[in-house]
Specification:
The protein is an alpha+beta fold. Helix content is 27%, strand content 27%. The chain has 8 helices and 17 strands. Strands 8, 9, 10, 11, 12, 13, 14, 15 and 16 form a 9-stranded mixed β-sheet that branches. Strands 1, 2, 3, 4, 5, 6, 7 and 17 form an 8-stranded antiparallel β-sheet that branches. Strand 1 and strand 2 form a beta hairpin. The longest helix has 15 residues. The radius of gyration is 19 Å and the shape is globular.
């Protein structure tokens, strides 16, 4: 549950939390056409708060808008400043940010070209997405009966609200079955991603993740881990991954702004490796948290001071 804070940024102004209301005829509420991002701010070892990879997140937000034919009335710089402003207004040294570009009320029906394009930024306190124990011990996953959207059916590279109905159904199915998270295959039967995370496996010391031509979101944490892995001298492959490759992996883990780096200990009742976070997973997890929260200063370009 999201704890109530003080302020939410809406269309250029900070408004009281309870005053941040939208009309029931908001077009995006009915038809699901909106673009959003999930961004984290961390308090680092030096006591300062930084937003992690803010520029890349805002760029992806605008890419999603381009794909969805939404034209924000605010610039990249204005929305970046809004993120920092919202954190400051709520006195948050750490937090999760959710910028949203959506179609407001006006005409109804599928085609509503003149409805206002609105923008908001909200932040809240969000710890480990899948739980603190998940970061330490790993999670149990189930391959979903729901497939990820085909690239000719939807826009896999857009972070659009309506597409997440697919994820909600997959996640519910997994949770109702007693698992922690779902893993979705693409329409050709290859491993795609989790309900809200990119996926990596390790086999014989090689780090493997589905390539960008697959039906996956181009994750920013995914890109971060690929860069850190190369710096650590870990061989990396971006390639298709089959279900049986996943079952036979030595290690597996999820990445995402919310999930951060979460080990996977079991898939479809099959133990992954030793059933605990493996050495490469731990190594990358530790490096990631040292970059975002610790004293690792190797990537200052990833950090935006609040």
């Amino acid at each position: 549950m999201v704890d109530k804070l003080q302020k939410i940024w809406m269309d250029g102004e900070l408004v009281d939390w309870d005053a941040a209301q939208v009309h029931v005829l908001t077009h995006s509420l009915h038809y699901g056409l909106a673009a959003f991002e999930g961004i984290r701010a961390y308090k680092r070892a030096n006591g300062q708060t930084y937003v992690f990879r803010l520029r890349e997140h805002i760029d992806r937000l605008f890419d999603s808008c381009k794909l969805a034919l939404l034209q924000p009335k605010f610039t990249r710089e204005q929305l970046s400043l809004a993120c920092a402003e919202t954190l400051r207004a709520n006195g948050m040294s750490e937090g999760y940010l959710r910028p949203l570009i959506y179609l407001g009320e006006g005409a109804m029906g599928i085609y509503a070209p003149n409805n206002p394009v609105r923008a908001s930024v909200v932040c809240w306190k969000w710890g480990a997405y899948l739980g603190e124990e998940a970061l330490k011990k790993g999670i149990r996953c189930k391959i979903s009966s729901f497939a990820r959207h085909h690239i000719n059916i939807s826009l896999a590279k857009a972070k659009m609200t309506g597409q997440y109905t697919n994820s909600v159904l997959a996640k519910r199915e997994a949770k109702f079955g007693g698992y922690d998270e779902a893993i979705l295959l693409d329409s050709n039967g290859y491993v795609s991603e989790g309900s809200g995370e990119n996926l990596f496996i390790v086999k014989k010391g090689v780090l493997i993740t589905p390539d960008l031509s697959s039906s996956i979101l181009e994750g920013i944490t995914r890109d971060t881990i690929l860069q850190l892995a190369r710096e650590e001298g870990i061989p990396v492959q971006e390639a298709r991954v089959t279900r049986d490759q996943l079952w036979l992996a030595d290690e597996a883990f999820f990445t995402g702004t919310a999930a951060e780096v979460t080990p996977i200990r079991e898939v479809d009742d099959r133990q992954i490796g030793e059933g605990v976070a493996g050495p490469i997973t731990r190594r990358l997890q530790e490096r990631f948290f040292d970059v975002v929260r610790g004293a690792d200063t190797s990537h200052p370009e990833w950090l935006t001071k609040v």
